[in-house]
Amino acid sequence: MNVVETIHRAIAVNNTRFAFELLPPLKGDGTEGIFKAVNNVIDFNPAYVNITYHREGLKQTLRPDGRAEWHTVRRRPGTVGIAAAIQSKFGIDAVPHLICGNLSQYDIEDALIDMDFLGLHNVLALRGDCSQNEKIFIPHPQGHAHAAELVRQIAAMNRGEFVDGEVDICHHSKFSIGVAGYPEMHMDAVDEEADLLYLKEKIDAGADYVVTQMFFDNAKFFRFVDRCRRIGITVPIIPGLKPLVNAAQLETLPAVFSISVPESLKREITKCGGDKQKAKTVGLEWTIAQARELKAAGVPVIHFYTMSKTENIAVIAKEVF
Questions:
Q1: pLDDT per residue over 50-86, tens digit each?
Q2: Whole-prediction pTM value?
Q3: Where are the alpha helices (DSSP H) in 189-259?
Q4: Is 185:195 a contact under the CB 8 Å cutoff?
């Protein structure tokens, strides 16, 4: 079963499921850590697991003559491989992320073919972040500048259309395609209307469902869904949540992800002072309350951002699911 079927089944029986997101292991690490992260929550019957894809970075080394030399490196390779390993070991659908950054259409096609061979029939299509040395996103010369173009390529491959043209007799992939939505607007968007119209372009290109950026105020999510429905976006919209675990995140999360934190949550976290355990408890209780309200509203799946730390998600799952 692919993810869009899982989502629609949850809708049909009015049963909210949960999903979670993991980072691939750091280069040089094995599978032990990420398998442990899955084990922490597998008994709570997660619907599926997402595996992120990470851009290349820059590393400086010194040549024997003393001159600096720069190399491109990826600290977390292996998105497709670890997704296949998790799906095989745990029998849970895995959703590799696929991005536009630094990939040609041919690279993307090859990755999709590998995924199909490995039985990975789900993908989250993203533009991806800027490279470490970019101030604005610069696409690969033979790649895509926007996620909508990536969605079109995946949808075309499902129809048997490849970069170099249609193949007369071929095996057709059956990828379910997820895309990102932003209740508080993407950081590069001109305004809310333009951001929403771009999301509709991704749906019209062939996306099956939307998973949102994290938010800490459910009212923002409900408003976002209402605005989507009013412009004709009818696909399922999956809310994304992340439990705050320390006071530092009150500053870092809004800065990095262009989101807001409610003043009441800020006050409660700040009251904890330097007590990390109290701050973590406040963050968990807030997310549990969010999840309960979203479940009561009938969302089919709640997506949790974990940074591969799933112990907190196990606590939430035990209380909510």
A1: 999 988 766 677 778 777 777 677 788 999 999 999 9
A2: 0.94
A3: 192-205, 218-230, 249-257
A4: yes
Three-state secondary-structure class, residue 279: helix
Of 38, 108, 97, give the one whose Cα is nearest residue 310.
38
CB 76 within 8 A of CB 22: no
Where do we find the tokens 């997506």? Answer: 303
Please state, in angstroms and as integers, the Cα–Cα distance from residue 28 to each residue in 75, 78, 179, 258, 305, following that order.
9, 11, 30, 32, 23
- Quote the tokens at residue 314: 């196990």
Judge whether 58 and 102 are in contact, CB under 8 Å.
no
Q: What is the DSSP letter of 42?
A: G
Whether 21 contacts 76, CB under 8 Å: no
Q: Provide the mean pLDDT of the chain.
A: 93
Nearest to 238 by CA among 258, 211, 256: 211
d(CA 271, CA 297): 31
The token duo for 71 is 């190399």
Structure tokens at 122: 């789900």
Instruction: Give CA–CA dist 126/112, Å, rounded.
Output: 14
Judged by average pLDDT, the poorest of 122-131, 209-218, 263-272 is 122-131
Report the 10 Å Cβ neighbour count for 26. 12
Beta carbons within 8 Å of 200's beta carbon, 6+ residues apart: 228, 231, 232, 233
Kindly give the residue spans of alpha helices, DSSP state H, lying in the chain: 3-13, 32-39, 79-90, 105-117, 147-158, 192-205, 218-230, 249-257, 263-271, 276-296, 311-320
Mean pLDDT of all residues in 188-209: 96
Tokens of 93: 């659908």
Q: Is 251 left (phi over 0), alpha (psi -120 to 50) or beta?
A: alpha
> How many Å apart are CA 163 and CA 40, to the nearest integer?
41
Query: How far apart are the two ends of the chain, measured CA to CA in Å?
Result: 21
